[in-house]
Design brief:
alpha+beta; Alpha-Beta Plaits; elongated; 2 domains; two-stranded antiparallel ribbon
């Protein structure tokens, strides 16, 4: 590689101090970013593209680590390597946000009226289920819904606007069926009575 850059008029000192660390830095960004995206594809069950990304990730990593071993006396390479790793994590997360791959399950728990959220879900044809529970704050409604990740910001904004005090969690799901349930308010007198109240939406 030194011979190639020497042909471009780049001195060995410039190569060691600037060019090589930059190459390692950007190689690490690429391979860590690929790794982040690959994990998302693995979680969503996309085996083919995850396999291809895994091959590319390993190839880029070998090229980067190979340059480290060839220049063990270059301190700048040791700085560039972890710096590229850290930057790659950030870049990979940004890519994942833009791609918005897969589905998520959202759980909303609130003691307030959630009819506005239900209306929003019905409007966008999102499947959901509702059950009633009880906490130290009194009666609570628990809403479950599964939607594409790209639709999550809209739902979160709706929650913050309509029921800002609501508690909600978001988790990634590998797959989800297309059927959905809407659950009527359960009877707290008997533990299993709410099961009989389940009806198809």
């Amino acid at each position: 590689m030194e011979f190639f850059f020497a042909g471009l008029g780049i001195s060995s000192d410039l190569f060691a101090i600037v060019v090589l660390p930059l190459l390692i830095f950007f190689a690490r960004i690429i391979d860590v970013s690929i790794n982040t995206v690959r994990i998302i594809f693995v979680m969503t069950g996309r085996k083919g593209i995850a396999t291809i990304l895994g091959f590319l990730e390993s190839l880029v990593w070998l090229l980067a680590i190979g340059q480290i071993f060839k220049h063990l006396d270059n301190i700048y390479s040791y700085i560039a390597y972890p710096a590229g790793f850290a930057a790659g994590i950030y870049v990979g997360m940004r890519i994942e946000e833009k791609l918005a791959l897969g589905k998520v399950v959202v759980r909303i728990i609130s003691s307030e009226d959630i009819d506005s959220i239900v209306t929003y879900l019905n409007k966008h044809k999102f499947k959901y289920s509702i059950i009633s529970g009880e906490s130290d704050h009194g009666e609570e409604k628990i809403l479950f819904t599964v939607l594409k990740r790209e639709a999550l910001p809209g739902l979160k904004q709706k929650i913050s606007e309509e029921i800002p005090t609501a508690f909600y969690t978001v988790e990634s799901v590998k797959s989800a069926s297309e059927t959905g349930l809407v659950v009527e308010k359960p009877n707290r007198r008997r533990l299993g009575s709410w099961l009989a109240s389940v009806k198809r939406k």
